[in-house]
């Protein structure tokens, strides 16, 4: 739309003004937000931008590779891919408190990022895809006086010692506006239309302790679930959908045998901006078919449940 074209021009000017001839490093997460921010900043200042993709090993199936190839091959944006899975998963092992998990991921992200930035010879500016709802929710939430609901690891996590200024060109935008801006910038529809994915990744969709084994199980279930959603033509109607691997094992029966495996919860919501959300009212046939596929195809899961909680009182993510 003309509005987004104007916004694009305004932000390109603003970024140039703020950055001058300085160097900018962008924390690329693989999601729509940081990608749109990176492409916009690249348009404004070109090679003064380098992206650092801290791969925490908590991405969905094939996601990390897709992001890296899109940026390097399609957009020619300089990108450093850091494989930090051992570091993150190692630090998370045995930890089940949601806020500690979030803070651990946030801290490791900063540390890893800082090391890589140093290797690049530093920069004066740090670019982030922070959105308006991130800004609000990190400070407070409707109803309570400055209660932190969740520590978002992509906001305000910049330690002063890094001595970098923030470039956050999406700070005024809601999610749907970021998508419109992404389209305006020529990002592929399939990428722009992707559901949001949280910075702490699959760690907050594995309540309790996180292990490589659990992450692998969750990845498979999540991919099947999303595949069924796409096949049913529901992907664009749903604002966000994902699987959660519960730290609960239940008894089941398969063939002649007893099973004792994990429970997988499915989540799907409609929303405008993520601030409030309604659970998606699937028909039972869809849920039954998806559950059957997950249980048949994913070793480690023998029961599937559907989350019918809206936000509020629930939040979209489970942690
Ligand atoms: P909640 O769970 O708070 O989530 O209802 C609202 C939206 O924010 C996403 N989310 C995050 N995004 N870093 C992010 O970039 C985070 O730490 C984070 N936590 C939640 C969530 O997926 C939903 O879209």
UniProtKB/TrEMBL annotation:
Pathway: Purine metabolism; GMP biosynthesis; GMP from XMP (L-Gln route): step 1/1. The keyword Nucleotide-binding applies. Keywords: ATP-binding, Glutamine amidotransferase, GMP biosynthesis, Ligase, Nucleotide-binding, Purine biosynthesis. The lineage of its organism: Bacteria, Pseudomonadati, Pseudomonadota, Alphaproteobacteria, Hyphomicrobiales. This is GMP synthase [glutamine-hydrolyzing]. Residues 2-194 form the GMPS ATP-PPase domain. ATP binds at residues 29-35. Its EC number is 6.3.5.2. Catalyzes the synthesis of GMP from XMP.
């Amino acid at each position: 739309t003309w509005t987004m074209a104007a916004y694009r021009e305004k932000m390109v000017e603003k970024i140039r003004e703020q950055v001058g001839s300085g160097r900018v490093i962008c924390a690329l997460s693989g999601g729509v937000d940081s990608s749109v921010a990176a492409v916009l900043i690249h348009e404004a200042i070109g090679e003064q931008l380098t992206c650092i993709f801290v791969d925490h090993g908590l991405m969905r199936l094939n996601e990390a590779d897709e992001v890296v190839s899109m940026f390097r091959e399609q957009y020619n944006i300089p990108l450093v891919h850091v494989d930090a899975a051992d570091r993150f998963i190692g630090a998370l092992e045995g930890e089940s408190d949601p806020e500690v998990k979030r803070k651990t991921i946030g801290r490791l992200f900063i540390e890893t990022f800082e090391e890589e930035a140093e290797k690049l010879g530093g920069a004066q500016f740090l670019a982030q895809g922070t959105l308006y709802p991130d800004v609000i929710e990190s400070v407070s939430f409707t109803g309570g006086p400055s209660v932190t609901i969740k520590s978002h690891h992509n906001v305000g996590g910049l330690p002063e010692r890094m001595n970098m200024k923030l470039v956050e060109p999406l700070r005024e935008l809601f999610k749907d506006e970021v998508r419109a801006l992404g389209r305006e910038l020529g990002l592929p529809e399939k990428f722009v239309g992707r559901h949001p994915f949280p910075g702490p990744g699959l760690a907050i969709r594995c309540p309790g302790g996180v292990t490589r084994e659990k992450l692998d199980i969750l990845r498979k279930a999540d991919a099947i679930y999303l595949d069924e959603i796409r096949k049913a033509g529901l992907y664009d109607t749903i604002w966000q959908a994902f699987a959660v691997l519960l730290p609960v094992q239940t008894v089941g029966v398969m063939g002649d045998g007893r099973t004792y495996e994990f429970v997988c919860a499915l989540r799907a919501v409609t929303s405008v901006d993520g601030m409030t959300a309604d659970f998606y009212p699937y028909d039972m046939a869809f849920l039954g078919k998806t559950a059957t596929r997950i249980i048949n195809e994913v070793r480690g899961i023998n029961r599937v449940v559907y989350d019918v909680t809206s936000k509020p009182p629930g939040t979209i993510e489970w942690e």
